């Protein structure tokens, strides 16, 4: 089986992973959106990763979904709302025994992908690393963090995990990946929408603690009812700890909204509300928060799904 890493999406995380794998001598191929993007990439001559103000360029080969050849190992590095349509385009090239690693934040997109490719192993990731695009094909590694990988359907560690360590990508295999993803989703739900609605940095929420606490309490109750009690443990305390630790930062959702970009709300607060409905759990605070956020996004001409 080929050990080439195909990486779909040359945005922030895709570039961060592609450059580190290429630097470690691993075979990497980028999958870009269309022939125009491929041509622009070829003119740029590669991806640039900036780390501690040191820029390095990597001439990683690239193709589009319509190129030929089977794909055995795919890292999906697009936004949650793009993952399922991207897989639909690539499906004819995915090898029977192939593996797909899904880097998307939130929950719901992983199942949308897995339903399309039931014969392939889908590995979910939760990343606390931070990167952002400075320019086309140029990404800054902004925050060191960690990556947890796991497969809710199969606890066996993939044989290629060592390759990530060789590439200095901090990674650990976990059998509790859903707990990790739910915990991060809950933190994102308790903080990010309120920063948009109150138009503030994370620290601005210290002026709205009763609202933050009521939402955290409802999220914790939902996690208990949907079989994720560990993700609920001391959630209120962690929400406040994160607000204080990141007080000068703008949340990722705030930054998306400010830049006029589509948010991943459907896979964050939207997923929490849909899960509550499926389990028959009443979550009036979350429902109201969702409605306020949807209204706010629509007023800005942004989609809410
Ligand atoms: P991004 O917008 O920077 O990059 C996504 C890239 O995917 C874009 O270049 C886009 O053109 C490309 N893309 C979309 N559809 C495609 C297709 N069909 N074929 C080829 N390319 C396609 O996004 P990002 O910030 O890297 O985020 C990716 C995921 O990782 C998100 O779910 C995000 O929440 C999560 N995440 C990001 C960070 C971060 O620091 N950036 C940290 C943790 C988690
Ligand atoms: O992860 C975050 C984000 O901005 O998306 C924080 C603010 C740390 C938690 O919601």
Keywords:
single chain; 305 residues; alpha/beta; Rossmann fold; N-(1-d-carboxylethyl)-l-norvaline Dehydrogenase, domain 2; 2 domains; 21% strand; globular; binds nicotinamide-adenine-dinucleotide; binds ketopantoate
Fold and architecture overview:
This protein is an alpha/beta fold and 305 residues long. The protein has 2 domains: 171 residues, Rossmann fold (3-Layer(aba) Sandwich), CATH 3.40.50; 121 residues, N-(1-d-carboxylethyl)-l-norvaline Dehydrogenase, domain 2 (Orthogonal Bundle), CATH 1.10.1040.10. The protein is 44% helix and 21% strand. The chain has 12 helices and 12 strands. The strands form 2 sheets. It has an 8-stranded mixed sheet, sandwiched between helices. Helix 3 runs parallel beside helix 4 and helix 6 runs antiparallel to helix 7. The chain is globular. The structure holds nicotinamide-adenine-dinucleotide (NAD) and ketopantoate.
Give a brief description.
By secondary structure, this protein is α/β, with parallel strands linked by helices.
List the helices and strands and how they pair.
Layout: E1 5-8, H1 12-23, E2 28-32, H2 35-44, E3 47-51, E4 54-58, E5 62-64, E6 71-76, H3 80-90, E7 94-102, H4 109-116, E8 121-127, E9 130-135, E10 138-143, E11 147-150, H5 161-166, E12 171-173, H6 177-197, H7 209-225, H8 229-232, H9 235-245, H10 252-258, H11 269-278, H12 284-299
Parallel strand pairs: 1-2, 1-6, 2-5, 3-10, 6-7, 7-8, 11-12
Antiparallel strand pairs: 3-4, 8-11, 9-10
Helix pairs in contact: 3-4, 6-7, 6-9, 6-10, 6-12, 7-9, 11-12
Residues 187-188, 191-192, 202, 242, 246, 251-252 line the site of ketopantoate (KPL).
């Amino acid at each position: 089986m080929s050990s080439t890493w195909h990486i779909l999406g040359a945005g922030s995380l895709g570039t961060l992973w592609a450059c580190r794998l290429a630097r470690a001598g691993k075979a990497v191929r980028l999958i870009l959106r269309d022939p125009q993007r491929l041509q622009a990439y070829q003119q740029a001559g590669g991806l640039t990763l900036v780390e501690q103000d040191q820029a390095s360029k990597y001439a990683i080969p690239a193709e589009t979904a319509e190129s030929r050849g089977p794909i055995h190992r795919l890292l999906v590095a697009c936004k949650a709302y793009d993952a399922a349509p991207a897989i639909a385009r690539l499906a004819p090239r995915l090898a029977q025994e192939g593996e797909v690693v899904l880097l998307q934040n939130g929950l719901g997109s992983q199942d949308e992908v897995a339903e399309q490719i039931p014969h392939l192993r889908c590995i979910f990731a939760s990343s606390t690393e931070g990167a952002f695009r400075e320019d086309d094909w140029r990404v800054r590694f902004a925050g060191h963090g960690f990556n947890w990988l796991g497969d809710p359907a199969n606890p066996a560690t993939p044989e290629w995990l060592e390759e990530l360590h060789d590439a200095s990508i901090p990674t650990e295999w976990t059998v509790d990946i859903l707990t990790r993803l739910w915990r991060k989703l809950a933190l994102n739900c308790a903080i990010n929408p309120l920063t948009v609605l109150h138009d503030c940095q994370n620290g601005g929420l210290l002026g709205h603690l009763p609202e933050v606490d009521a939402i955290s309490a409802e999220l914790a109750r939902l996690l208990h009812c949907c079989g994720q009690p560990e993700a609920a443990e001391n959630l209120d305390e962690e929400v406040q700890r994160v607000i204080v630790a990141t007080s000068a930062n703008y949340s990722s959702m705030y930054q998306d909204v400010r830049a006029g970009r589509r948010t991943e709300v459907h896979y964050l607060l939207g997923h929490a509300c849909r899960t509550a409905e499926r389990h028959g759990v009443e979550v009036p605070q979350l429902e109201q928060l969702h409605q306020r956020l949807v209204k706010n996004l629509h007023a800005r001409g942004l989609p809410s799904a």
